[in-house]
Amino acid sequence: MHLPFAENYRIKMVEPIRKSTREERKRWIREARYNLFNLRSDQVFVDLLTDSGTGAMSDQQWAAVMTGDESYAGSSSYFNLQDSIKRILGFDHFLPTHQGRAAENVLFSALVKDGDIVPGNSHFDTTKGHIEFRHAKAIDCTIDEAFDTTLDHPFKGNIDLVKLEMVLSTYPKEQIPMIIVTVTCNTSGGQPVSMKNLREVYALAQKYGIKVIFDSARFAENAYFIKTREEGYKEKSIKEIVREMYSYSDGMTMSSKKDGIVNIGGFIAFRDEETYKKCTMFNILFEGFITYGGMAGRDMNALAVGLDEATEMDYLEARIGQVRHLGEKLLSYGIPIQYPIGGHAIFVDAKKFLPHVPREEYIAQTLAIELYIEAGVRGVEIGTILADRDPDTRVNRYPDLELVRLAIPRRTYTNNHMDYVAAGLKNVFDRRDQIKNGFKIVREAPILRHFTVELDKL
Ligand code: F0G
Fold this sequence. Notes:
There is one protein chain. By secondary structure, the chain is α/β, with parallel strands linked by helices. The protein has helices at about 20-30, 60-65, 75-90, 100-110, 125-135, 160-170, 195-210, 220-230, 240-245, 275-285, 295-310, 315-330, 350-355, 365-375, 385, 415-430; strands at about 45, 95, 115-120, 135-140, 180, 210-215, 250-255, 265-270, 345-350, 375-380, 380, 405, 440-445, 455. Strand 3 (about 115-120), helix 5 and strand 4 (about 135-140) form a beta-alpha-beta unit. Helix 2 packs antiparallel against helix 11 (about 295-310) and helix 4 crosses helix 10. The N and C termini lie far apart (about 55 Å). Ligand F0G binds near residues 99, 100 and 407. Ligand F0G binds near residues 126 and 215.
């Protein structure tokens, strides 16, 4: 008999989670002003709000925690992390930060100014937030295929080279501090960017003399898709693929809370010393001294190990296999999801799921709330609320896609949990015709409103 795939780890420690009743959940979500971020974690049974900082560390990572060096300057933990970054990603210069958006803050403080243009593939919301905060503009150059959730395309994170060249040839070089390539592209559904596309983007950038920075939160998952989907990479190791990916960049920002498999942390890394030097002042100002940048020594140590573990094929097979398991279950129930299934999450197409809810009533948010009430599963809206208002006109931006993201923490839940989530969503799907009304906003912040927005039922 063919031996099926099984995870290459076993569980040494467990953490109890608690089921609740539908009545309790209805009350809790009302008290939370219909914002899933406001729920207490013990009001949630399966928490798929994010895969960020929510993964399980290995015994090797915990061992590294115990040998963390908490010196203010020049700790051995810093040098351990430097070794991992150099060996795995190929960068000579790096600065630790306390998380990914802090890395963006430091880098953009040095490079992005009022009126600048930053093209890329569907910038993540904090990235876009940091760009717009500086009165610069993020231009989305993702391929059109990414916006059709049913279309089968292996690399929906790809940048459209025609769109990109249009931007590069329209604006003067001095106004484009960098191109940001997000690997994998979270906003378009955890979709990967092909090696061919990375190579071509870099060539185009070099032609115009512009830097390429990878927003790298899920770089290892991107490498997995290159290995399994792109011709010529099947026999290459994940680490070889990662090295080639970064050879087509000038630097990176990293949220280590994803493919670093740690609970907190981030960094920026560069090939050239000049950019590194420009950033050091901002790192010291915002984050901490350049050899810790807001991270404890123990966390840098755990990250040094995590980068190694995340770039092993056995780990990635288990990780992405679990996401696929949930996705295939949902597809078998006829539930509309972003296809092909991405790396870290399932994205449910809320417009197709709830055709009766008008877009002004926040379709994806409505679905996320229904799923919570149904099963105690917490996902997150990737739709109109997340898209914020246009910074100039202040009118709602209605994105092409209204999605509910079910992000799967690394090494945390079992496939039984995935089956439970799928059943919960199926129950909502079966009664979808009765869901006609959504929500209205009663309070919101001027930027990144989705974290704190307050809603009322219509
Ligand atoms: N870039 C990408 C692609 C991300 O997905 C995130 C975070 C960040 C940057 C910012 O990193 O959270 O460490 O400050 N994504 C989380 C998520 C929040 O749930 O997708 P951070």
